Automatic annotation (TrEMBL):
Domain of life: Bacteria
Ranges of residues in domain Glyoxalase-like: 10-77
UniProt feature coiled coil, ranges: none
CDD domains xref list: VOC (cd06587)
Identification of the protein by name: Glyoxalase-like domain-containing protein
Database matches in InterPro entries: Glyas_Bleomycin-R_OHBP_Dase, Glyoxalase_6
Source species of the chain: Streptomyces scabiei
Residues spanning the signal sequence: none
């Protein structure tokens, strides 16, 4: 959410369903430019995320796939390439 209280609101619910290898839905985190992306990836790794060894990265990918401690995948996007 934007600091002024505007923007999209997000609610995350808990489910007992096992984590899927290729989930139908995942979260994208927009991190600004490449430097912001790298800093956010390092911050998330420090909080317990792990890098996903994903074999489907396109050349010049603007995203990094991570997983939370329970294995739920999400992406950190470099939005500075637009």
């Amino acid at each position: 959410m934007h600091p002024r209280g505007t923007g999209v609101q997000l609610s995350i619910g808990f489910s007992e369903t096992p984590v899927q290898e290729r989930p139908r839905v995942h979260l994208d985190l927009y991190a600004g430019d490449a430097q912001g992306q790298a800093a956010e990836v390092e911050r998330l790794l420090g909080l317990g995320a792990r890098r996903v060894a994903w074999d489907s990265y396109p050349p010049g990918a603007d995203f990094v796939v991570l997983a939370d401690p329970e294995g739920n995948r999400f992406c950190v996007i470099d939005t500075g390439r637009g």
